[in-house]
Specification:
single chain, about 60 residues, alpha+beta, 4-stranded mixed sheet, 1 helix, globular
Length: about 60
């Protein structure tokens, strides 16, 4: 895997309310992040699975 640098001023992540994720049930590209703006939870796509009710990652506020 090669290292790449992305230089942008603003990076937008796919985002919506939790209920809208369930309603639209999209498929995110492999490694594509999606954010639930009302819960603070985020999802990572695998390019196959619909995200209406996926396993979620969650920010903990702890740095490792």
């Amino acid at each position: 895997m090669s290292e790449q640098t992305l230089k942008v001023k603003t990076l937008y992540l796919r985002n919506d309310a939790a209920a809208t994720w369930v309603e639209k049930n999209p498929v995110l590209a492999k490694g594509e992040p999606g954010v639930e703006v009302d819960t603070g939870k985020f999802k990572l796509g695998d390019g196959v699975t619909q995200l209406g009710r996926p396993a979620l990652c969650r920010r903990t506020g702890k740095r490792q």
